Amino acid sequence: MASHRVVVVGSGFAGLQLVLDLKGAPVDITLIDRRNHHLFQPLLYQVATTLLATSEIAWPVRRLFRDRPDVKTILGHVTGVDRQEKTVRLRDGTIVPYDTLVLATGARHAYFGHDEWEAFAPGLKTLEDATTIRRRVLLAFERAELETDPETRQALLTFAIIGGGPTGVELAGIIAELAHRTLVDEFRSIDTRSARILLIEAGPRILAAFTPDLSQYGAKALEKLGVTVRTGVPVTDISAEGVRVGEEFVPARTVLWAAGVQASRAAEWLGAPADRAGRAIVERDLTVPGAADIFVIGDTASVTTADGKPVPGVAPAAKQQGAHVARVIRSRLAGKPEPGPFAYRHQGNLATIGRSAAVVDFGRIKLKGAIAWWVWGIAHIYFLIGTRSRFAVAWSWLWIFMSGQHSARLITQKETLKDENGR
Fold first, then answer.
1. Alpha carbon separation from 226 to 195, 201, 354, 387, 417 (Å, rounded)
2. pLDDT in tens for each of the 423 residues of the chain?
3. HEC profile for the chain?
4. Which of 39, 224, 278, 279 would be a feasible disulfide site paired with 302, CB 3.0-4.6 Å?
C-alpha cells in the first residue's frame, strides 16, 4: 500500500514543526517553499541592524532533513490548489498531488491600503528585507558624511520606525545604539550622536501586548537611548522625503515599517473565508471548513482560543499548531480518535530594548531591565537550531556586549551610494 502523501507548503515555524513531528509516521512528505532556508524570524531585526549575519539565523531546509528519506523538498512558488483533484500547482507548471495538504505560508507586511508606501518604508519578514534595511541604515550615515547642506544632512540622519510592537521597539533601540555608541568615532564630518530616531505608534502605547507597566518601562528605556516615542497619532503619508505624522511632516530619508501584516494568498487558493488580514478562517481543529484533508496553520490561519480570543501570530503559536496537526494526522492514519480542538498555550511575551534592557511577561512573572535581557537572550539561544548557531549567536552577543561593536556592518546587495529611489 502506498504511503499517505502529505504536502506541506511553507518551511517556517509551523511547517517545520509539523515535518519534525511526523518523523516515523507512515507518510511521504513533500515540503514546498519559495526559499531554500528556514528563517528564525525573532532575530531577523538583528540582521537588519548589523548585529548578526544572515547565516546565523537561517538554515538550508535540505540540510535539516538530509537524514529523512520520507521528506522531499521542492524549491517552488505555489500559485493555486485544486481541491477536487487534490493537487497543488506551482508557477512552473508542476502539479503535486496530496492526500493531506497543510498550508503554512506565513504573512507579509501590510500597509493598510497604501501599498505605494512599501517603496519608501520596507518591512521586515525575510532575509532580503533585513539586508535591504541594513543597507539603507548604513548608507544613510555614509551619505550624510558627504552632505554639505545642514537640512538635508539632518534628514539623512533621521530614522522613522512605524509601529510600536516588539519589532518596531527592537529596531528603534538598536539603531539608537548604533548611532549614539557604535559609530561615534568612525566619521569625520558628522556626529552620529545627532541622529534622530523616531518611533511612531498610532495606538495609545507601545508594546500593547504587554502590561501597561512594562509598556511604560519600554518607552522610558527607549527615551534613555535617545529615541523619540510618538503615540496616539497615525501616519498619514510616506514619501521619499519623509513621513507625515498626523498633520506634521518629518523629513526622514530612512523610514522602516513594523506596523501590520497581511497573510499569504492561501485563503484565496482554497476559496475559503478570510479575515480582514487575509488569514484563512479555520475550524477549531485547524482544518478548512468543509475540507477535512486541508489544514491551514501559522500566520496564514485565523484561529481563536476557547474563550474566543485570537491566537497571536508568534513563533510559539505556530509551532504548537504544527505539532497539533502532526498529532491529528498520526491519529487518522492509526485509526484512533483525533485529539481535541487546538488549544493554544501562552508561553509569554518578550521584547528587547537595546543592550541590557528588555521586558518579559510570563503572566504571573514579569521582568524588566538587565535580568529580563538575559532571560530574553537565553530563551532565543535555546530555540535556535543546532549547536553551531547557538554558539555563533552567543559569541556575537558577548562580543557586542563587551566591545560595543557590531559584527555585521556590511553594505551588500546594491552596493552603491544611490538608494532605491535613485538619489
1. 9, 17, 11, 36, 27
2. 568 999 999 999 999 999 999 999 999 999 999 999 999 999 999 999 999 999 999 999 999 999 999 999 999 999 999 999 999 999 999 999 999 999 999 998 899 989 999 999 999 999 999 999 999 999 999 999 999 999 999 999 999 999 999 999 999 999 999 999 999 999 999 999 999 999 999 999 999 999 999 999 999 999 999 999 999 999 999 999 999 999 999 999 999 999 988 889 999 999 999 998 899 999 999 999 999 999 999 999 999 887 888 999 999 999 999 999 999 999 999 999 999 899 999 989 999 998 889 999 998 899 999 999 999 999 999 999 887 788 889 988 888 877 777 867 888 765 444 555 545
3. CCCEEEEEECCCHHHHHHHHHCCCCCEEEEEEECCCEEECHHHHHHHHCCCCCHHHCEEEHHHHCCCCCCEEEEECCEEEEECCCCEEEECCCCEEECCEEEECCCEEECCCCCHHHHHCCCCCCCHHHHHHHHHHHHHHHHHHHHCCCHHHHHHHCEEEEECCCHHHHHHHHHHHHHHHHHCCCCCCCCCHHHCEEEEEECCCCCCCCCCHHHHHHHHHHHHHHCEEEEECCCEEEEECCEEEECCEEEECCEEEECCCEEECCHHHHHCCCECCCCCEECCCCCEECCEEEEEECHHHEECECCCCCECCCCHHHHHHHHHHHHHHHHHHHHCCCCCCCCCCCCCCEEEECCCCCEEEECCCCEEECHHHHHHHHHHHHHHCCCHHHHHHHHHHHHHHHHHCCCCCCCCCCCCCCCCCCCC
4. 279
Rounded Cα distance between 72 and 86, Å, is: 18
Burial of 285 (0-12, 13-18, 19+ CB in 10 A): middle
The cell for 261 is 501584516
* Cell numbers placing 236: 498619514
For cell 537561517, the residue is 58
Closest Cα partner for 395 from 25, 7, 51, 164? 51
CA distances (Å), origin 277, targets 164, 217, 353: 18, 30, 28
